[in-house]
Amino acid sequence: MDSLESRLGRIIVVTGSFGSGKSEFSLNLALRLAAGAPAASAREVALVDLDIVNPYFRTREARALLESHGVRAVVPPGDLAYADLPIYGPGVAALIRNPAVRLVLDVGGDEMGATALGGLAPDLEGFDYDGIMVVNPYRPFTRTARAIAAMAAGIQERSRLALRWLESNPNLGPHTTLDVVRRGHAVVVEAARLLGLPVLGLTVRRRFLDEWQVDLATELQVPVMPLEIYLSPPWLEQTLD
């Protein structure tokens, strides 16, 4: 089975609702892309943080980590890094046009986030990109297949950009069990069927995969990406072990 990242092209747009895990997914994906052999048409990985919704779980919080692994972190400069604004300059458009850069865009999925993404629609026009909606079916507003499909439709309408994949990220934080993952993934699969979209892969925290010792990729017939947690604030990390 192909790996999750091998399914994706040069430009990757990641969106999702509050609490979906899309920023953590974006960060893990960028690190995996940087660690792997670069594609023939791309020599550098860059991650652009356009998330204006959640002040605690944004990729800009992990700038030092990204840069230490060779990933260019594109975030607002100085004090603006913590502003709840979609601040980005012409450099992002240049990255979109640059065939030597494999680009991950982390964008909020609410109305403001989708509108910010819509601002980049003219720059993305004419370029082949992978639009991914990360889904945690245990979060409000995405608990059923129909609710997920409705949110996906709203994101596409507001952003004027198409989704190509759903990424399954079923979890209840530190209380996640194997049954939680299996049941939640089934909801995401049904949502993908309603939307006529494929499921890109399944994201599961690495420590759970190590504990469970099951081959979910074979069982569920989907690429599995082990997830490391980088963005949790200290007050939450204390509850995870």
- Provide the domain count: 1
Strand order of the largest sheet: 3-2-4-1-5-6-7-8
Q: In total, how many beta strands?
A: 8
Largest sheet: 8 strands, parallel
CATH topology: Rossmann fold
Helix/strand-derived category reads alpha/beta
The gyration radius over C-alpha positions equals 17 Å
- CATH homology-level superfamily: P-loop containing nucleotide triphosphate hydrolases
- CATH class, named Alpha Beta
Question: Percent of residues in beta strands?
Answer: 15-25%
Overall CATH architecture: 3-Layer(aba) Sandwich
Mean pLDDT: 84
Low-confidence region ranges: 53-57, 78-87, 234-241
What does this structure look like?
This protein is α/β, with parallel strands linked by helices. The protein has a single domain, classed as P-loop containing nucleotide triphosphate hydrolases (Rossmann fold). Helix content is 37%, strand content 19%. It has ten helices and eight strands. The chain has helices at 22-35, 63-68, 90-97, 111-118, 121-124, 145-159, 178-195, 206-212, 216-220, 234-237, and strands at 11-16, 44-50, 71-74, 101-107, 129-135, 165-168, 199-205, 224-227. An eight-stranded parallel sheet has the order 3-2-4-1-5-6-7-8, with helices on both faces. α2 (63-68) links the parallel β2 (44-50) and β3. The chain is globular, with a radius of gyration of 17 Å.
